[in-house]
Fold:
Amino acid sequence: MDKILIHGGRRLSGSIKVSGSKNSSLPILAATLLTREPCVVHGVPDLSDTNYMLQILAHLGAQVERASGTVTVTAGKIHCVAPYDVVRKMRASVCVLGPLLGRCKEASVALPGGCVIGDRPIDLHLKGFEALGSAVRVEGGDIKVCAQIDMQGKFGPTVLGTDNVIMAAVLADGVTVIEGAACEPEVVDLANFLNKMGAKIAGAGTDRIVIEGVRELHGAEHRVIPDRIEAGTFLVAGAIAGDGVTVKRVDPEHVCAVTDALAKCGYAVDIAGDSISVLPNGDASALEIVTEPYPGFPTDMQAQMCALLSTNRGTSSVTENIFPQRYMHVAELKRMGAELRLEGATAVIEGVDSLLGAPVMASDLRASAALVLAGLKADGVTEVSRVYHIDRGYEHLDEKLQELGAHIERVKSE
Ligand code: EPU
Structure:
């Protein structure tokens, strides 16, 4: 198992390019199951999560070719059963359920296992499928679906649930209306891809999506959007340890909540086209953040922000509204000298002058990124173990940080 060693204290400068979005690539790759024809997807990041998805597609019978960031999937003949063995490594495998239902009208996908960021039910996905199924009726000899589905749950709308229901509905005969839909850019990206395949989806990016079913979909070519969470993570790297860091190939609108938060702390943020630069501020201040569905502050940036606020002047508070238990990084940041305490779903952070390198354990993708960011700031060496969590969602994180001048190395451990 690899470890990452960060020799803290180096000032980062220069620029990096953001990779394609992990959370767009996963449902878009799953959507290729909806047609027999070849689909070409560009900008798919080389991550263990995207590789798991390709393995699942291959298991289902699709032909998969990958040449660097371009993936071609031809799902000529598929079957509709994905056993536990195939799906257990990744929660997002659940998003093959929608396209399998859409194409085969039946599917059996094992429930993926537990998740350290908290309970991750799929009741809303199932409610959506049920509404689609129960809305099927025979009318003048034709099967018609006319479903009205509310996807709002206790913690807001569900992203993959919205994706799943869209994919199950595109080939249904009739109109499906999703109320309380997730508005995340990744949902819009999926809808754009499906529309290129011949689907008729309107309203993606709003909370009301209308899908007019079509008889069949055809192959399409698409480039996934830049990864807004990777972009946000590098912007925080620039704030925590930078001397002027520019993040390129990003959609500034997608990271507005993060750039606003950085600006409120006192960091100068400069946006020019698809590049964003962040300048350091030795006297950056505390902040109150609440995670919310898009366009609010993303839960996937909460841990990284905790790392940043650990050394900002004053008392910060970070409230996690999407996954209230997503605080595995708190205990590890404390090992590095940060002063954080949990009050329910809120982390209260007292800014300290400095952090100290320590051996720490990565627990999930974004928590791991937070530990790397803290390591860039800390004095001495930070050793992050269980690096496979990082490799699930950040393409070449260590290499990109090296490009910015970080002293970071990956070592094999027994
Ligand atoms: N929820 C339910 N019932 C459901 C589905 C979700 O109650 O049927 C709850 C969840 O427990 C959570 C909230 O609704 O409290 C939102 O979860 P959502 O379904 O939106 O999460 P997801 O679609 O499974 C995606 C991302 C996550 C990201 C969340 C929230 C992908 C592959 N994953 O998950 O990304 O945190 O949306 O924005 O798109 C990550 O990249 O590190 C990551 C975890």
Summary: The chain has two domains: 2-15+227-412, 23-223. The chain has a mean pLDDT of 94. Residues 23, 26, 92, 119-125, 153-155, 158-161, 186, 299-300, 322-323, 365-366, 393 surround EPU (CB under 6 Å). The radius of gyration is 22 Å.
